[in-house]
Amino acid sequence: MCEKRNIKIIIAYDGAAYNGWQRLGNNDTKRTVQGTIELALKQCLNEKVDLVASGRTDAGVHALGQVANFYMTNSMLLPEIKCKLNEILPADIRILTISEVPLKFHSRYDAVSKEYEYHIDLRSKPDVFTRAYFLSFTEKLNIKSMKEAASYMLGKHDFAGFSSKMRDDRSTVRTIESITITQEEDKLFIRVKGDGFLYNMVRIIVGTLLEAGTGVRTPESVLEILRTKDRQLAGYTVNSHGLMLRHVWYPLDVLADKGSNC
Description:
Layout lengths: L4 E9 L19 H13 L6 E2 L8 E11 L5 H11 L4 E9 L11 E9 L13 E2 L6 H9 L3 E4 L14 E12 L2 E8 L6 H14 L6 H8 L14 E7 L13
Parallel strand pairs: 3-10, 5-6
Antiparallel strand pairs: 1-3, 1-4, 2-3, 5-9, 5-10, 7-8, 8-9
Helix pairs in contact: 1-2, 3-4
């Protein structure tokens, strides 16, 4: 046994079979990503750990680059931990990287930016093999109008109108750094990067952009949503299965790899 160590992992997971990231109560039998990984860690390390993620993805949401950290006192080498975890974990969760970081590092509070990507299948009949990861959308879209609507969301704004859950003690001001809309043949990809996101914010942004693309709303209507902070004026909340957390950014100074204390 050695001193306490802070371990950072980057995780990819298919969220289809999980009730979101967050571990639920002890008496709740629903599968969660956090709960599944914590059980694997306990089996691997022979000690109970609490896993903290950069953010809590909802039921059905996937991740290509979720970041989490946990403390342990085990002296096991990191490559061995990674290998054992991936042997224990189900095939829809994979540990991509593992590293030791300073004790003060916190995967949620130290994150400075996150990027989500939403996948849309534009074909009249959805692909049998990708339908679990793409929203099927058959209406004709004006991509130019979607990009114009997206341009009004860039920068620092109060995004209360783009959230489906409000808390009085939490600021709803966020900064959107970029929104890219890319069409590749019959697939559409919408990437949203920002310093943080409210509950369902990305899914409501995508729904609003789709309405701008079909002509249900004008691109300029985004300005009214931001001004009034009225959720009823924004677009619908698209399904969760098309959403993926792609990447999380941290300041370099908090991520410096730390040698083992053992």
